[in-house]
Amino acid sequence: MADWKKRRFEQTISPLHMRPDEHQQVGGTHYQQMAIEPFEYAYRNNLDFFQGTLVKYVSRWRAKGGLQDLKKAKHTLNEYIRLIKSDPKKEKLDKSSKQLTKPTNMYFPDCSIHISICQKLTECLPSTYVAKNKLDTYQSDIIAHVTYWKAVRDLQRLYDAREVLEIYIKL
Questions:
Q1: Residue 17: CB partners within 8 Å, gap ≥ 6?
Q2: CA of 95: how far to CAs of 68, 69, 76, in Å?
Q3: Given CB 3.0 to 4.6 Å as the disulfide criterion, which of 25, 50, 133, 156 pairs with 80?
Q4: Sign, Cα dihedral of 32, 14, 21, 9
Q5: How do residues 20-31 score in pLDDT, each as one tens digit?
């Protein structure tokens, strides 16, 4: 492959699919089994601490902490809801926090640029994260509710996530 073609090809590969040699997990292998790690997903979706923590616990529970991780997720979600309800400013819609979460109709004459941008946008979607990490329907619902609640500032999304989590714990 010509040098310029190789550079162009490398630019279209998403960083989510490349693991640098220095990327090492400390204490276990539960994240190495994931195609997209929770911290990468949280970063790409601009999730706050609570949202990222919830995604982490719900995603890894089978590979690491078992039922205790789901209970930690429930505790984290309850605290998150409590803090939001105690701060009325957090419940209001902040238009500046809205983000682009799916590809829009964009035209780029260079196909590789278009593919690269669309790849980065779609890899932020909960459905892509769930599919690539082979998570189940309960995990998918919880992660989607937790991810999207901020865009609409509707606490019902978090209540729904808690309800699904409670059902999941009882299974």
A1: 35
A2: 36, 33, 25
A3: 50
A4: positive
A5: 555 565 555 656
